């Protein structure tokens, strides 16, 4: 029966495991039949059920032999089934052990995979973060390119409009060509002169190019000249010191000679008085002698008459002889006094000659000292000129440091401990040292102004830079520092005090005076003024007559002032008031008007704290009719709001919002300076209105100067150190060589004017 089941060609379903798992197939669970008597025997579920349910049929109930044989056959098949089950159980145990080992290996592999997946997940997160940053920078770049594209489209539209206007004008000129035939000869002559001038300008341009090529070569010579100037300066200073020592020694000798001369004159006066008294005594003695002689004669005559008076006559004779001896002694003393007087006259004459010689020597020494000081001043001017030339060639931002004096109520005992100034010749007037926590921090700038420096001395250092605005350069001067460090005093000064005027009024006075003096050379200038402030990241027009435009609700002005930069690096602010000015008095009136409109507030650090960034802009346009040259210059004078810490200022409410906006804009300015110092491809000028407004000054072709103002009290050491570090970083930035904006009046312009 088993053989029939095994040899049958039917394919049955595999026998399932007793615990209800998957069915077994010949492929999935092969049965080991090694040692089996019946060869390979496979059982299915139906076979086992049939075997268990099989009932043995007997032909005869009493045929025990047949029943035994059938029973043996049935038992044999049961044994085969049981053996098959045992072998299958062994195979399953072996397979289970194998699966357990595989499970352990798979678990280890899964753990390794999870660790690697975590690492890959972290790497992917970092890559995603970098991609996000790249995406943000790409978005910024895309926005920038889109704005540039829009600007290019606008310029293209304007160019098309200009082209259409030119075509219309050309058609009009074509119609008027018949009328202009009479003026053709003069126009040709003017064109010929223009061509000649163009050739001259080409030659001048080529010479300028040669000069620029030589300028870099002259830079090394300038460095050597500066070194030689420094050496000569040290020698001159040493000579001045020696001459001063000689001068002081000669002054001491002169004082001693004057003292000895005074003594001699006193002795001479005493001798003269003594001689006079001796002469008087001598005259008296002579008179007495004459009197006695007369008396003697009378006595002799009387003695002749009277012999009784002989004794009296003898006494008179002895008295007369003694007086004669006294007279002789007085004469001897008079002779000796005359000799002493002659000797004193000779000594006085010699002292007078020596005094004159020393006086001439002192005059010579004074002239030599004056010449040495003049050479020192000229050498310092040459050093400054060469230093400025080098800075202009390098394109660095110049930095001046100014330390304000101590105010009443501040601790002046810590100034010497906190701030000091190097005394070496190399760093004299350029170095400053700051002590914090017993650590010395040294900084070097283009100029360092001590607390006793006047406003006039500060302006003298920047006067040539202001002059550059009249020459056609863009000039920017801005003051940086913590609140209460003297920025507004430096830029605006003290109202009502002529000696303490700030840089802005002094710059305007110089520009108007220079404009007046240049009229004799054919120059005519037109000046335009605008003033604005950046308050809570909002631009406010300080010259606007509309009071509604000056009001702000939560720092937002109702009037929008958009900032735009053209292709030439010029900055334009939309809807900003620009006024023509003719005199410095007009500008002073406008400054007072802007000062009244500017946002100020009281904090714990400053009674009158500026709560906004103040920007004064003077646009200069000049024309020289004799040379047909035009210049366009811009002077930007900026008073930045002071940085402050909330813990020290105690700002709350509106002051708190103002402080946060000020610190944010100054932080953006620091990010821009840091990017410029590292020469990054992307500089975040658009992060704040302040940096976007200063973009041509910080990243263009402008002459830029920064004042870093320092408070000397010890409580401001931390803020002063931050300001000095920022200034040092600004001084290291290279923004490009300044470019002068000049051009020649076009022939068409002259024809239209003529």
UniProtKB/TrEMBL annotation:
Record keywords: Coiled coil included?
yes
Locate the coiled-coil region(s) and give their ranges: 110-148, 177-232, 261-389
Q: Which InterPro entries match?
A: Kinesin-like_fam, Kinesin_motor_CS, Kinesin_motor_dom, Kinesin_motor_dom_sf, P-loop_NTPase
Region of interest (Disordered), ranges: 17-36
Q: Which residues form the Kinesin motor domain?
A: 396-733
Q: Which residues form the signal peptide?
A: none
- For this UniProt record, give its keywords in alphabetical order, as a comma-separated list: ATP-binding, Coiled coil, Cytoplasm, Cytoskeleton, Microtubule, Motor protein, Nucleotide-binding
Keyword Nucleotide-binding assigned: yes
Any Pfam family: Kinesin
Primary location class: cytoplasm
MF terms per GO, please? ATP binding; microtubule binding; microtubule motor activity
PROSITE patterns named among the record's database cross-references: KINESIN_MOTOR_1, KINESIN_MOTOR_2
Which domain of life does the UniProt lineage start with?
Eukaryota
Q: Binding of ATP: at which residues?
A: 481-488
> Mind listing the GO biological process terms from this record?
microtubule-based movement
Listed under GO cellular component are:
microtubule
Q: Would you identify the family this protein belongs to, as annotated?
A: Belongs to the TRAFAC class myosin-kinesin ATPase superfamily. Kinesin family. KIN-14 subfamily.
Q: What is this protein called?
A: Kinesin-like protein
Organism of this sequence: Brassica campestris (Field mustard)
């Amino acid at each position: 029966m088993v053989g029939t089941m095994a040899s049958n060609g039917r394919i049955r379903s595999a026998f399932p495991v007793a615990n209800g798992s998957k069915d077994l197939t010949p492929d999935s669970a092969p049965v080991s039949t090694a040692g089996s008597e019946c060869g390979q025997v496979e059982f299915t579920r139906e076979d086992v059920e049939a075997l268990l349910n099989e009932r043995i049929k007997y032909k005869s109930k009493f045929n025990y032999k047949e029943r035994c044989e059938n029973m043996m056959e049935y038992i044999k098949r049961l044994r085969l089934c049981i053996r098959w089950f045992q072998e299958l159980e062994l195979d399953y145990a072996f397979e289970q052990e194998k699966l357990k080992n595989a499970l352990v290996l798979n678990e280890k592999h899964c753990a390794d995979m999870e660790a690697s997946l975590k690492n890959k997940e972290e790497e992917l997160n970092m890559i995603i973060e970098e991609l996000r940053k790249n995406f943000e920078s790409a978005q910024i770049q895309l926005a920038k390119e889109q704005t540039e594209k829009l600007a290019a489209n606008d310029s293209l539209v304007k160019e098309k409009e200009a082209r259409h206007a030119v075509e219309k004008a050309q058609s009009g000129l074509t119609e008027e060509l018949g009328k202009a035939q009479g003026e053709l000869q003069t126009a040709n002559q003017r064109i010929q002169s223009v061509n000649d001038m163009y050739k001259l300008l080409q030659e001048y341009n080529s010479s300028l190019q040669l000069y620029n090529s030589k300028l870099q070569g002259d830079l090394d010579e300038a460095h050597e000249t500066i070194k030689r100037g420094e050496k000569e300066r040290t020698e001159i200073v040493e000579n001045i010191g020696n001459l001063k020592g000689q001068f002081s020694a000669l002054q001491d000798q002169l004082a001693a000679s004057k003292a000895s001369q005074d003594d001699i004159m006193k002795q001479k006066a005493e001798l003269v008085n003594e001689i006079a008294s001796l002469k008087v005594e001598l005259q008296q003695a002579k008179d007495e002698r004459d009197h006695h002689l007369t008396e003697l004669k009378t006595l002799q005559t009387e003695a002749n008459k009277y012999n009784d008076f002989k004794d009296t006559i003898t006494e008179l004779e002895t008295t007369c002889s003694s007086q004669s001896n006294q007279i002789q002694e007085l004469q001897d003393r008079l002779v000796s006094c005359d000799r002493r007087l002659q000797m004193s006259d000779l000594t006085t004459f010699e002292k007078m000659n020596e005094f004159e010689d020393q006086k001439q020597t002192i005059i010579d020494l004074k002239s030599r000292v004056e010449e040495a000081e003049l050479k020192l001043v000229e050498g310092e001017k040459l050093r400054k000129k060469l230093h400025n030339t080098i800075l202009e060639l390098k394109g660095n931002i110049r930095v001046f440091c100014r330390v304000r004096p101590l105010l009443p109520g501040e601790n002046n005992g810590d100034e010497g401990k906190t701030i000091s100034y190097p005394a070496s010749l190399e760093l004299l007037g350029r170095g400053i040292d700051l002590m914090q926590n017993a650590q010395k921090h040294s900084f070097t700038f283009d100029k360092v102004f001590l607390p006793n420096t006047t406003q006039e001395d500060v302006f003298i250092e920047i006067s040539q830079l202001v002059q550059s605005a009249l020459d056609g350069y863009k000039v920017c001067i801005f003051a940086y520092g913590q609140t209460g460090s003297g920025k507004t005093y430096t830029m605006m000064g003290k109202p009502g005090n002529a000696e303490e005027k700030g840089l802005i009024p002094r710059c305007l006075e110089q520009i108007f005076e220079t404009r007046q003096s240049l009229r004799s050379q054919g120059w005519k200038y037109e000046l335009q003024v605008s003033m604005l402030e950046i308050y809570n990241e909002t631009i406010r027009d300080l010259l606007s007559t509309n009071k509604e435009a000056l009001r702000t609700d939560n720092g937002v002005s109702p009037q929008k002032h958009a900032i735009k930069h053209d292709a030439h690096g010029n900055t334009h602010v939309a809807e900003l008031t620009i006024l023509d000015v003719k005199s410095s008095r007009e500008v002073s009136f406008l400054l007072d008007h802007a000062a009244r409109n500017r946002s100020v507030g009281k904090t714990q650090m400053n009674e009158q704290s500026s709560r906004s960034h103040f920007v004064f802009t003077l646009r200069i346009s000049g024309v020289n009719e004799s040379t047909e040259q035009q210049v366009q210059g811009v002077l930007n004078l900026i008073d930045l709001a002071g940085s402050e810490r909330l813990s020290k200022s105690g700002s709350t409410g509106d002051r708190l919002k103002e402080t946060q906006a000020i610190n944010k804009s100054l932080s953006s300015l620091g990010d821009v300076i840091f990017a410029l110092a590292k020469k990054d491809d992307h500089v975040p000028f658009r992060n704040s209105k302040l940096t976007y407004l200063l973009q041509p000054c910080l990243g263009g072709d402008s002459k830029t100067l920064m004042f870093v103002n320092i408070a000397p009290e010890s409580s401001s050491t931390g803020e002063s150190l931050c300001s000095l570090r920022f200034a040092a970083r600004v001084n290291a930035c290279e923004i490009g060589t300044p470019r002068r904006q000049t051009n020649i009046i076009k022939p068409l312009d002259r024809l239209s004017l003529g």
